[in-house]
């Protein structure tokens, strides 16, 4: 059986944009590594050239229906010939792009789940991950600079998430982000003050308690917003024809 090699390689046709296609299958090889098939795509995912062996996993590694050419992207089907999805984005109230692919920027963005790229959700998740890592670093004694740096990254990404969600009119996630950011910010401020100021041992313990409590509270709100946003989209999942 041919083995797909989803490597980042520039398009070879002079009429195509010479930027790489993210994660697309461009070569198929046999067990000895000999190339048995090749694919070339345009920026939106249409196969513009194909030789040799074939695979259904083509542009961006997505399953491609042989009859229609539509790409299965978990929650929606995408037509690379028109550069449009076949159904409305579940996040259309936020993105204002009902059928567009990858925010109309296929050279720099992907849409592997069939949802418009959501900067706020990614930043909210990153904030929670950095916050958890910071608490773990402090609890395990990895080192004060490491924990403090991770908490700082958590606050920074939390600010980005809140700014995005609030500016896009997402009231729920804006509230979750803002409360989480305030709590995490208080915790980070307490930890920073404990680091740079000369305080008594009792005060230091109190500041660390505020840091841990604020961080945990902030993380819980951040995760609540991210989880709720993801859960609201789960019913839109489509079945993959490859599994039928």
End-to-end Cα distance, whole Å, is 21 Å
Quickly give the structural class. Answer: alpha+beta
Count of helices?
5
The percentage helix is: 40-55%
SSE pattern, N- to C-terminal: EEEEEEEEHHHHH
Q: Unreliable runs, pLDDT <50, ≥5 residues?
A: 6-20, 231-237
How many β-strand stretches? 8
Q: Strands of the biggest beta sheet: in what spatial order?
A: 1-2-3-4
User: If you compute it from the alpha carbons, what radius of gyration comes out, rounded to the nearest whole angstrom?
Assistant: 23 Å
Largest sheet data: 4 strands, antiparallel
Based on Cα principal axes, name the global outline. elongated
Tell me the fraction of residues in β-strands, as a range: 5-15%
- Rounded average pLDDT: 75
Question: Would you kindly provide a written description of the structure presented here, covering whatever features stand out?
Answer:
It is a single chain. By secondary structure, the protein is an alpha+beta fold. Helices cover 44% and strands 11% of the residues. The chain has five helices and eight strands, in the order ββββββββααααα. The chain has helices at residues 92-95, 119-140, 144-167, 171-196, 201-231; strands at 3-5, 27-29, 35-41, 47-52, 63-64, 71-72, 77-79, 84-85. A hairpin with a 5-residue loop joins β3 (35-41) and β4 (47-52). α4 runs antiparallel to α5 (201-231). The radius of gyration is 23 Å and the shape is elongated. It starts with a strand and ends in a 13-residue tail after the last helix. Mean pLDDT is 75; it is low at 6-20 and 231-237.
